[in-house]
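As agreed, record minuted below.
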Amino acid sequence: MAKNSPGQFFNQVKAEASKVVWPTRQETVTTAIFVGIMMVILSLFFLGVDSVFGAVVRWLLTLA
């Protein structure tokens, strides 16, 4: 692999950075809302699973 000078490297980085497509404000807001909703849904799901497993373990410990 050929070595580049620091100047060439920074020019290549700038060229690659110019290809980046940033999301619009609407896309960012929509994605943030979706992430928030999914976070609430998954936290409730895992709260339920944890509660069920906790109840099962407490029940099993009463048998011993």
About this structure: DSSP finds two helices and no strands in the chain. The first helix runs from residue 6 to 17.
